[in-house]
What we know:
The strands form two sheets. Strands 4-3-2-1-5 form a five-stranded antiparallel beta sheet. Strands 6, 7, 8, 9 and 10 form a five-stranded antiparallel beta sheet that branches. It contains 13 helices and ten strands. It is elongated and about 145 Å long. It folds into three domains: 3-169, no CATH class; 175-253, Roll (SH3 type barrels), CATH 2.30.30; 254-426, no CATH class. Helix 1 (3-18) packs across helix 6 (99-116), helix 1 (3-18) packs parallel to helix 7 (148-171) and helix 7 (148-171) packs across helix 8. The relative contact order is 0.08. The mean pLDDT is 86. By secondary structure, it is an alpha+beta fold.
Amino acid sequence: xxxxxxxxxxxxxxxxxxxxxxxxxxxxxxxxxxxxxxxxxxxxxxxxxxxxxxxxxxxxxxxxxxxxxxxxxxxxxxxxxxxxxxxxxxxxxxxxxxxxxxxxxxxxxxxxxxxxxxxxxxxxxxxxxxxxxxxxxxxxxxxxxxxxxxxxxxxxxxxxxxxxxxxxxxxxxxxxxxxxxxxxxxxxxxxxxxxxxxxxxxxxxxxxxxxxxxxxxxxxxxxxxxxxxxxxxxxxxxxxxxxxxxxxxxxxxxxxxxxxxxxxxxxxxxxxxxxxxxxxxxxxxxxxxxxxxxxxxxxxxxxxxxxxxxxxxxxxxxxxxxxxxxxxxxxxxxxxxxxxxxxxxxxxxxxxxxxxxxxxxxxxxxxxxxxxxxxxxxxxxxxxxxxxxxxxxxxxxxxxxxxxxxxxxxxxxxxxxxxxxxxxxx
Length: 426
């Protein structure tokens, strides 16, 4: 078979069978290059073939042609599986994905299968057995060398197959299969075998309303699915009249993330929940909360959310702490007023001391009349100095008491939450 048919047939064969693993060989240029390369690789033993010319500088094609001949060792299962093991080993080292190994196995075997359809066939068990393997058994139905009419027919067939099956290769075999049914159970099958984020086009009737659109699959079960449409998460179940629910791949790997938290305030929780598709959550609050979950309005200190988006939680004050809070607040106000009073007396006492000191220093320089006035002022200042009750005290102890009260007020007044949430990473 000619190189052109090995390329066209290799693309059709590899593309079709790769679709069983949801691998689209047309998705990336390197997938196409790998497919063409592996589909032509067995002919490296022929010096005039594309592979023989490409690797001619290595003298490998000349060596294989001289020592083994064309369609021998490179067309055997021994080399096929040996190179496959090498591909798998190399790809395992550099990546967890084995797409290129899959492409190799399919593209390489396509070459062997198509060569089996020629009169010569290929010795698959070489070097253990040199008997050629052929398909079909009757040589009249096999392809002959330089039969350009048959080659052209095969080429046209491969091209037609590529064009006809391209949507299947692009979308994947099982996705295409499941889309033909458009049911919740087939959506669940696609969801179960996929590791990427699924998008879905939905068309259904609920309570007399026709609803149509598309969104991302949050969770899928056999009888229901939760869909996110950029503003809300809603449920589609088998009790609704479903016209179509068609899955497709986003090529974005599905990722989930968990966040654990302890004793955070309600504002912090709102930030955690904001713009997130919550898959599940389980956390406790120091006060009762009201929230929507599963179509029900609940009130509890234990909050369990699932399959929701931007859920609002209303925190209810704990009335059992109101008396305690009131008493603590009154005591805090009294201490604050006492602190202000002490601070004022300390300031005034310092001013009195400053004035007494100033009068004593300037007393000898004054006239007799001024000295009499100074003595009178000193008596008044001395009486004031005696009357200050807090002049020798510090406000540090009062400040600490106020801080302790404020901490106690915050502890009794704040809503604190502890637990975890699991959300879908978009």
